[in-house]
């Protein structure tokens, strides 16, 4: 019987040490090389239930951001990319970033989407230093099963980060490639109560990115006041269901399409930036051509290194 212990120990080490290490290496291969067929990870990856291609031309071109809003930001450079950083008091910075996102991303199709899925949202509790997202640059449709789809075209000036060292790295990592593809929010109906997010590298619904492959990312409506969703993050859902939950946060709407604050979330975000993130600003990728022209002309203010105010 004692001779069995080495075998049992080897099996336990393989399960609790070897398998996680193997999965880690396979995830890295997936991230950097796009390799999806290596077992056992290949058995855990999601595929999109959606078919076909979204017609990108349905969403009109971005409007120009008014000069009076651009005068309230500075253009900063980090790793060869131009970013916008608001200036002024914390309350002024928050309002400026929200106003610019809405100005750049609000188009005719925005108003055809459910009001609760328009505007600017705060990623409250997100462990990654991403703060605000604008869902307005989108078009809605129905899939063959009759479920509602919000097709949000990826764009600059729609996602903000903290200008801390970690925040700038995450911003660069996520924005370093040419902006492409879309996020697809799939709900049972236009009431948008319980949905799932699929991130696509192109406008082909099947072409989901590596992160979407690894888990189930949900939009679960929460009670008010205001508009709130649980942004569930359930890893390896094909193997674990919803038991491996990590990184979930609350998505809170803080500004309507018309620029009206959504309370109490808006004031809570200003307080959060004043307290938890005291000394830090919000950063978002600029339209590179416009930023370069603006920097050359001296408007917006001045190009500067992307060091946070608290650094």
Defining key terms:
single chain, 311 residues, alpha+beta, 2 domains, 15-stranded mixed β-sheet, 8 helices, globular, disordered C terminus, transmembrane helix
- Give the overall silhouette: globular
What is the end-to-end distance? 62 Å
Oligomeric state of shown chains? single chain
**Beta strand count:** 15
Radius of gyration: 21 Å
How does this structure look, described?
29% of the residues lie in helices and 25% in strands. The chain folds into two domains: 4-43; 56-305, no CATH class. The chain is built from eight helices and 15 strands. With 311 residues, the chain is of the alpha+beta class.
Topology:
Blueprint: H1 4-33, H2 67-70, E1 73-78, E2 81-86, H3 90-105, E3 120-124, E4 130-134, E5 138-142, E6 148-153, E7 159-162, H4 165-175, E8 182-187, E9 194-200, H5 210-214, E10 215-222, E11 228-231, E12 233-235, H6 237-240, E13 249-255, H7 265-274, E14 282-285, H8 288-297, E15 304-305
Parallel strand pairs: 1-15
Antiparallel strand pairs: 1-2, 2-14, 3-4, 3-13, 4-7, 5-6, 6-8, 7-14, 8-9, 9-10, 10-11, 10-12, 11-13
